[in-house]
Amino acid sequence: MNKASNYLYTGDNIHFLHRFDSESVDLIYLDPPFNSKRTYSAPIGSKAAGTSFKDMWSWDDIDEELLETLFITHPCLVDFIKSIEGIHGKPMMAYVLYMAQRIKEMRRVLKEAGSIYLHCDPTASHYLKIVMDDVFGRDNFRNEIVWCYTAPSGSVKSFPKKHDIILFYTKSDEWTFNADAVRIPYKKLNTNKGQSHFGADVSLSSKVRDEYLHRGKMPESWWPDFSPVGRLKKERTGYPTQKPLDLLTRIIKASSNEGDVVLDPFCGCATTCVASQQLNRKWIGIDIEEQAAHLLVERLSDDAGMFKDFVHRFDFPERTDLPIESPSKPELKQAMFDEQGGKCNACENEMRIVDFHIDHIIPVSKGGSDTRENYQLLCGNCNMIKGNRPMEYLRSKIAKRDNLLSQQITFGR
Fold first, then answer.
1. What local confidence, expressed as pLDDT, does residue 233 receive?
2. 9-30: b (≥16 Cβ within 10 Å) or e
3. What's the number of CA atoms in the CB half-sphere (13 Å) around residue 234?
4. What is the pTM of this model?
5. What is 184-221 written as a DSSP string?
6. How many other β-carbons are positioned within 10 Å of the β-carbon of residue 217?
7. H helix runs in 279-390, sequence order
8. Average of per-residue pLDDT across 359-380
């Protein structure tokens, strides 16, 4: 993947994530749909006019062909996701599974010292936190940030719901965090004495107090200092779920350095991309809506004050961390035949080498690459059943067949 340019990709993010190099991204921020059971549309006349999406989920939104990997690598997580149907219904189960499939790939592309911020609301934040605990490790949970805001509300039977949750995780126990870059002013009223800083009710000299005030303090994990975009006329694009630029600026300053790569796999109206450009970071945005590309061009020109090194692509990038190998190489087939012990990688039947087909585990059409790690040998029957689908599809078919056969044998007895 060429890191010299900034990229916007249009399409399903999981297919692009498959093609990104492992450990190629320094910071991930994502503001995915929340399963709010609402339809969002940008108003006519706004920059985002024509943009609309339904934040309602069903099993049709799940790529069942990619489920097998989760079953193998995160069995406890799969059991948890199954339980959601009984608690919250099948749509929520489908939504959490959709997110889990993508979060797993995000961890792979994140560098060891990288961080990820998952922006959500109370609708599903408790479910997504368990997903993050399982994929990133509960010991790598750093903060549950609460973005508090005010806005009109017609609520009369409960307290108005005016906050979002941002889950902050790292990939390891060593991560980038620039505390001094995100300090905020102290209230002078609280700094005449140094109790909060020094742990005692100690009077401060004028010089020490001035230095104390000048340095500022670290923001707590609740952030009341960012207004919703609806109040920020200069930033408004009309995009239904747009977040304020200052919110992303704080996150990017804290958890990345100049020249780092910032990824937003649900980039929408490209606020993350704009903030990254302004802060001299490289960025990658992915969104399924083509309208996001038009908004990005306009926002970078107007807001960032510059527009360069921007590439918009619909096709998948080539991985550069793995060597590309042609499936026509005779020695490749022989090596795979030896590794698989002369057996089909699906049904495990033994065959001659000439009876095997070299097949992609993840098809090229879904982000698979021509790399050794993505090749396998299948017998003719398994290759025909699988077709142009991921390996998980074939394994599920074989599992269903074996289960049915087992039931028939039991019934016959």
1. 65
2. bbbbbbbbbbbbbeebbbbbbb
3. 7
4. 0.83
5. BPPPGGG-SB-HHHHSS--B--HHHHHHHHHH-B---S
6. 17
7. 291-299, 330-339, 380-386
8. 91
Q: Per residue in 110-167, pLDDT tens?
A: 999 999 999 998 888 999 999 999 999 999 999 999 999 987 777 889 998 889 999 9
Give, to the nearest 10 degrees, the angle between helix 90-109 and helix 125-136: 40
Backbone angles phi, psi at 55, to 5 degrees: -95, 60
Beta bridge partners of 7: 284, 311
Give first-to-last CA distance, the chain, whole Å.
57
C-alpha to C-alpha distance for 49 and 192, rounded to whole angstroms: 52
- Closest to 333 in 3D by CA, of 367, 362, 373, 376: 376
Contact yes or no for 70/395 (Cβ under 8 A): no
Smallest CA-to-CA distance from 140 within 161, 167, 165 is with 167
Q: Exposed e or buried b for every residue in 302-327, given b needs 16+ CB within 10 A? A: ebbeeeeebebeeebbebeeeeebee
> In this structure, what token pair is assigned to residue 270?
């490209």
Higher pLDDT, 59 or 206: 206
**Pick from 159, 35, 180: nearest CA to 95:** 35
Q: What is the CA radius of gyration of the chain?
A: 25
Residue type, 179: A
Q: Comparing C-alpha atoms, which of 16, 14, 24, 8 is closest to residue 321?
A: 24
Which positions ≥6 away from 194 have C-beta within 8 Å?
200, 202, 203, 204, 208, 212
Domains, the chain, ordered by start: 6-183+218-313 (3.40.50.150), 330-412 (1.10.30)
Whose structure tokens read 């000048």? 214
50: alpha, beta or left? (left if phi > 0; alpha if psi -120 to 50): left
The bridge status of strand 356-360 relative to strand 25-30 is unpaired
pLDDT, one tens digit per residue, over 62-104 is: 655 556 677 778 889 989 988 998 998 888 888 898 899 999 9
Reading the block at residue 396, the tokens are 């599920």
Tokens linked to 201: 């009710």
Q: What is the pLDDT of residue 36?
A: 46
Which tops the pLDDT comparison, 352 or 393?
352
